[in-house]
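New to this. Help decode the following:
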Amino acid sequence: MGRAPGIIVAALLLACAGCGGSSAGQGGSGSGQTTGAANVLAVTLDDGPAHNYTNGAFTTVTVCVPGSATNCQTIGGILVDTGSSGLRLLSSQVNGALTLGLPAIYPSGGQSSTYPLGECAQSADLSYTWGSLRRADVHLAGDMAHSVPVNVMGDPDMPPAPPDCASSGADNDSLQALGANGILGVGTLQQDCGTACASGGSPPPAAYYECPFGAACASTFVSLADQVQNPVALFATDNNGIILRLPDVTSAQTGAAGTLAFGIGTQSNNALGSAKVFRVDGAGNFLQPLVYDGNAFAVSFIDSGSNGIFFNSSGMIPVCRDYRSFYCPASPLSLSATVQDINNGSDTVTFGVANADQLLANPNASVLPDLAGPNIGFQTFDFGLPFFFGRSVYVGIASKQTSAATGPFWAF
């Protein structure tokens, strides 16, 4: 048996309508250097800062106390995740948050009587993260978002995770468990939960919590402005989307390099070109059902945070003997699915499925093409990181205008 594939697909499941996509398990190191252009950030594919990740794209972010040019922390090993929105950082990487001095976000009038607002993000792999909400100036390449609400996971200044959060499974608030130093969610949504967590007549979703001193934490509504935000949407320019460009990977590799560009059609280096545009719904899924092997998948999405392509094949593709969360066909398969583009055309999306036992037999390889597996417990179709190899994938942010369409959309 080769290297362990790590967490398979850890979808961030904020318990609210309108929460989008997914985010995947273990992390990477990431170079985080710019590539010369002010709106382009370097991305590294490798085994991550914990050296336990397969198929992860990583970069570096710099966070500063709002308004400060010197009280800052630069953090590598941040997972680039097109399936979620918002910046999440391990507390260990921001000097415990309070040492750096990132100001906390409190419930209305609660600073003297409560902990900072807390956030729980539960995952499809039966795990969770829990931490505080704080504000930071977020620097990505030459772009900056001011006073962004971010989630500091594992913040020691918070009480323990509420029971309805921790009951979902294992605690991912450590480097070894998460495998990354943080998650940069650059998906189609501006906030990670949206209106469902901002107001309503029913009890609030189990996502944001108010934790009074000496009392149990309780879920609460949080204004859109105080929710964890996609930092790209808050840039002064280059704020309507991103482009993740990764090289073609045809065999197992120890590493590779790509780029994350900000803006769509805002500069000469981020034009949409001939890419086809696909509308998505308010949860970041293809607006129309995806059809594979005659079966319609009502929930389908593109997610760089998942380390494989995950879908159910009705038993037609054998599951691996060693790594049973993945497929192991006798020979590589070339498959296709159909999705509907913005012009109502039926477009074919091709992808491959290789034998995961053979791919994972190389203990030094962390970048694997055509890694795929069953989506256990979900009738969804998840185009994870292998889908991005050899493609430029555009993510149009909700309500933001581009020359082709107003977001949210995917294009490739």
In short: The radius of gyration is 20 Å. The chain has two domains: 12-19+62-73+86-234, 273-411. DSSP finds four helices and 25 strands in the chain.
